[in-house]
Amino acid sequence: MSHLAKKEPKTFFASCPIGLELLLDSELKESGIKMRNLHKGGVEFITSHLEGIKFLATTTLASRVYIRITAFEFSNTDEFYDNIKNQWWHLTIPNNQTFKISTLFDLKSKYTFNNSMFFSLKAKDAIADEIQEKKGERPSVNKDNPDYSLLIRIEEKKHGKGSGETFFAMVYLDLTYAPLSDRGIRRLASQHDHSKHEAPLRENLAQGIIRFTEWKPGEEIFADLTCGSGTVLVEAIYYAAKLPGSFINLKDYLYNREMPWAFLNHAWWKELKLESEFINWARTQVDEAEDRLKKLPTDMLIGNDINGKYLEMTKRAIKTLGVFSIIKLQKEDIKMAKLQTENKGVVFFNPPYGKRLNQEDDLGELYFQLGENLKSNFKGNRAYVLTSESQLRKQINLRTSQRIEMKNGNLDCRLLFYKLY
């Protein structure tokens, strides 16, 4: 039996975009998970196998969820190899399945060791050597579509053994295939149209933005006036209806016999014999979520874009959830756009910025006019603007009430909050 299949609490790690860690921690707390530890880029938590898997299927903020295989201190690469090899990998990775390894360093580890690829190769050799010694054959590596995807996080250990430099390694097994932020909406919406948005937000980052706005569904409108392909508006629906992040994957798993997560093919999951209980829970989650979708108030969302193609993409995305009556779409320039309702709430803008669209144009005038439009036409609302460039955000001639730092891919961004009186 793999030690992963032992019926005892396990340590998991949920990763997320930088800037969303506190939100993710709150989501874990709301799920009833008490033992949590924040890290940059995610939250580590301890719970049972089934509760960890339930969180994987419901989270709207995590990018991936991992289960920890081992953790140890080491001072050099030989100790690192020995500790990796000292695991029963032959009981974890079956002969007919493949694996790959990625390694992440903190700043001190990167300065000391420099080459994360070397550590991945060292770990690969240790795992393959252990399996060959026990089973007589080496496992295969598949970098593109492995059955087992391992993540090794290496951090400085400030108070380790001995007097020399000591580091701490944590070895995790990825329980997902595609990132959890891939809701499946774009796949369904593009079945008859393969056009793509130039620079979409990740869905979990969009979900984080909505939560930062403290929007109150049923009491306020939510307007995305640069809606593009509709990512933020779809996430507003997920938030308002309290949909599981893997809502579409859960339905595919239940009704189409698809296998959307890696853990379903892992030996430890099959040994635990929890699938029947998971299926019953999943059915309840889907049924209750569909009931909540039907009860959403009409006209609670507004989408705007100057590009008609993007409005069509938004329309298709919303229709995949069967709730198009809750949204109004309009086609206006953000410099002159107005809300076509007297209702108040949250207005969100993700205007273009040079790096995002690889443009050299001076966008200062656009940001200035956006600020003037906010002052003139959006009084009584709360406005949020996402941007990455300080020179552009300075062109908005309004006092910011709050600046929230986050990462949009590799871009350092700020979510700017303006109270419009």
Order of helices and strands: EHEEHEHEHHEEEHHEHHHHEHEEHHEHEE
Instruction: Specify the CATH class of the largest domain.
Output: Alpha Beta
Structural category is alpha/beta
Q: Calculate the mean pLDDT score and round it.
A: 92
Low-confidence stretches: none
- State the CATH topology of the largest domain: Rossmann fold
User: Termini, distance in Å?
Assistant: 64 Å
Per CATH, the superfamily of the largest domain is: Vaccinia Virus protein VP39
Radius of gyration: 24 Å
Based on DSSP secondary structure assignment, what is the total number of beta strands?
Answer: 15
In which range does the helix fraction lie?
Answer: 25-40%
Describe it for me?
The model has no long low-confidence stretch (mean pLDDT 92). 36% of the residues lie in helices and 22% in strands. It is α/β, with parallel strands linked by helices. 42% of the residues are buried. Strand 10, helix 12 (308-319) and strand 11 form a beta-alpha-beta unit. The strands form 2 sheets. The chain has an 8-stranded mixed beta sheet with strand order 2-3-1-4-8-7-5-6. It folds into 2 domains: 3-174, VC0802-like (2-Layer Sandwich); 185-243 and 291-419, 3-Layer(aba) Sandwich (Rossmann fold), CATH 3.40.50. Helix 3 runs parallel beside helix 5 (116-135), helix 7 crosses helix 8 (231-241) and helix 9 (247-255) crosses helix 11. It is built from 15 helices and 15 strands. The protein is globular, with a radius of gyration of 24 Å. The N and C termini lie far apart (64 Å).
